[in-house]
Amino acid sequence: MIYITAYNSPDLDGIACSIAYSELINKLGKPAKAIYSGDLGLEVEFVKNFTNNFPIEKRAGLFEGDAQFILVDVSNPDDIDPNIKPEKVIEIFDHRELVFTEKFINAQTTIERVGSCATLIIEQFKEHNQTPSQNAAVYLYSAIVSNTTNFKTPDTNQRDIDAAEWVRGSASLPSDYVNQLFAAKSKIDTTNLYFALSQDLKIQTIKDKKIGIAQLEITNIERITTDLKNELENALFKIKIAEQIDLIIFQGVDVIEGNTIFYTIDEESSTIFAKALETQDLRPHAPLKINKIILRKSILPKLDRAMI
Q1: Model pTM?
Q2: Are residues 143 and 104 in the same domain?
Q3: Would you tell me the Gene Ontology cellular component terms (predicted)?
């Protein structure tokens, strides 16, 4: 069996790619199953309820000895289920600058700088003259719209636009679908802020420092650092302790206004992230607003240089 999966607690891009690529592999005559581990966020739940379709299995524990794996939206062995052995990975699709493909010695890799991994999966459908099912098309289109913040992020390119336009033809979506999706992922309050930050937390070890970036991409992002400021600080502190993180920052993207807010809770984190962001205005307990979208995946390579 070939298992197709993303990183632990995947976002919509990882879930969509797992579902759609397993569908394609099965169409091409190879038995494949989409799986995931961890928790799911609000946007995944929205698409799941919208389609009333969720052909992916939550998996825990050991795999059979002859199992093979395809990774989507991930290329770091530290981010995947520890039961997946890197030498069992046969293919990887990812769209990040900081990758670790050399650790997967038997994998064919497709690493392309596009806005969404879903774009790469759609291109695979086109290459094999196949069309995704309506539900898979909804997941793929939703992933591109979400990951590119409706085509506003700096890494969005024509390939993303073309892929989204092509797959939407199979999705049969209402005209206000994108607004519905963004509204659903923006339902953050005191009851779920900690979970939302934990679910979209990226942890990376750079130069012996364990770094965490907790991210939200929602509407009206400023209320997180105003109305929910105390809850935000408490959540970041709890995450830092629970995950034994050395440096932590909150990164919030406003999907409507197209700006980014950063927030730190300690001096060391502020100093290092300020170097990476090339600013002197990042200080603990004070939000820093930048009038453009800055992606988390673009910050991580800069941190490596900032920590010299």
Answers
A1: 0.91
A2: yes
A3: cytoplasm
